[in-house]
TrEMBL record, chain A:
One of its GO terms (biological process) is transmembrane transport. CDD domains: TM_PBP2. The chain crosses the membrane at residues 100-123, 135-157, 177-199, 241-263, 283-305. This is ABC transporter permease subunit. It comes from Brevibacterium rongguiense. Residues 96-302 form the ABC transmembrane type-1 domain. Its main location: membrane. It is a multi-pass membrane protein. It holds the Pfam family BPD_transp_1_N.
UniProtKB/TrEMBL annotation, chain B:
PANTHER family: OLIGOPEPTIDE TRANSPORT SYSTEM PERMEASE PROTEIN APPC (PTHR43386), PEPTIDE ABC TRANSPORTER PERMEASE PROTEIN (PTHR43386:SF25). Residues 1-20 have a biased composition (Polar residues). The chain crosses the membrane at residues 36-56, 97-121, 260-283. The lineage of its organism: Bacteria, Bacillati, Actinomycetota, Actinomycetes, Micrococcales. This is ABC transporter permease subunit. GO terms for biological process: transmembrane transport.
Amino acid sequence: MIAKLIAKRLAVSVLILLAVSVIVFAATLLLPGDPARAILGQQATPERIAALNEQMHLDQPPVVRYFLWLGGLFTGDFGLSTSANAPVAVLLGERLGNSLVLMALAALISVPVGIAVGIFSALHRGRRSDSAVTWVTLALAALPEFVIGIGLITLFATSVLKILPAVTMSPPGQPVWLIPSQLVLPTLTLALVVAPYIARMMRATMIEVLDSGYIEMARLKGVPERRVIFRHALPHAIGPVAQVVAIQLAWLAGGVVVVEFLFRFPGMGQALIDAVNYRDVAVVQAVSMIVAAVYIVVNLAADIIGIMADPKLRSAAA
Amino acid sequence: MSTHILTSDPTGAPPRTSSKPPGVLRRVWAQSEGRVGIVLTAVVVVLAVFGPLLAAPLTGYTPYQFADRPFAHSGVFGTDNLGRSVLARFLDGGRLLLLYSVLATALGMVVGGALGMLAAYARGWLDSVIMRLNDIVLAIPQLVFALLAITVLGPKGWVLVVVIGLTHAPRIARVARSATLRVINEDYIRAAEMYSVPRWRIIGREILPNIAGPLSVEAGLRLTYSIGAIASLSFLGLGMQPPTADWGLMINENRIALSVQPWGVLLSVFAIAVLTIGTNLLADAIARATAQTTVEE
């Protein structure tokens, strides 16, 4: 049964997420220093430190603390930020929204563009336009995201043209989409990182499909070329590409960190970097868990699409 | 193996008796991608290795000496945020990045390769345990994992090498495992087992040489990502620490003056770009070179 296969995959995802939470939580145990003292400062009295320790459950054994922390995650209580002296959930709330906007925009641009470029390249196989696409995608796929971002800043914001803002200008608390121009470069950077992989996979899969017997048959029958591509070839190529798309979208959850830092974008990634600098473990843990959860959910979605799309898997499961 | 001898070598060399496909390097060089990749990589490697020796003689300043006011335009490429020679720091800035990337990749290849071969060869519960542990590590994005480690252990060189290497290991293990599964039922492995050759010796002497193709592709790819990851961490200020001269860190230090004195940023960006593109082209060319041999076989 296909439902059984999906249920099994779902259970595995939950187990992996739990295992990730153990790793993320274990990081706190390795950390030297005293979070309560970090929050209250050097002048704090022992009584206040003891009180805060009790409030943060630091007087409990690690196993109890793990379950308290895990329970908190489900109720939206991510603990107390030691650097901001505020609940992590409040700190991350609006930033999560900002990051999701950035990721969604990048996905909306890169997926269709990547697929279109891949199809174009496959249809022009062996010609100069195809090899140009191959070179460009290979080069872009190699570049770290901040290199692409700085390239774009140099081209569009500082040295060559000055038509777009180089950094985010929204004051804290204001939604980032009120100044759309500041979203252009971060989105473009992420899209340029993600699209090449999709294009390369699309090209390879499309070439394989175009060489298959049923495409030749359709062409011999006199089916118009446009119809051959969009009705016969594309649906068969989408399955494997969906996997790569999902991996790339999951990658966005981590890749957004560097891009946010580069553009001073008030998102989760920026908060993560600040927290690492301040050794603010509660925030690092919360962001790690959110990113891992996004990552796992997207991968799960890809697997389910893969299971549904693959007739061999369908019959093997039945 | 008999079909192997039938494949004619383009240069007309006599067929070799070794089981290795002949002339992988020649096949890489025969592709324009491979040539460009080798040249780009070599240029940056030479720069990173010999640059530190040239820094002081060429510019008159060591990478740590103050040459002029901050962001001045004196010298060939001006000065950085603290007034040090950009050229001297640029020449000195690739060595650690390259060293750490190579070490991290090597660590990942050794750990991942060993785990992958072991999982495929042992099968059973050991295989399951290794692959499930893989899935767990793969569920955390590499950068986030690295940041978690740096939060706890601090931004030290060995932390970078170990965490980048270990996060590569599961991906490499997957490749090694599936490659091993393809050769595990070959007759020469069975023969070795019949002669009761020890398992570690079969893994090292029989399996490893026969999965060298996919592993070398993976090594090229992982080297590209190692360079990207370590440069990214340095750029975030969480990799190499000041006053070290390092390309990623230089970008972080000098990017506020991108419109006034762009060289402090652009030289480093250019070097990292050339290096990663070079290694990626090389990995792609190796992939094609080794894939060609499997097609012909």
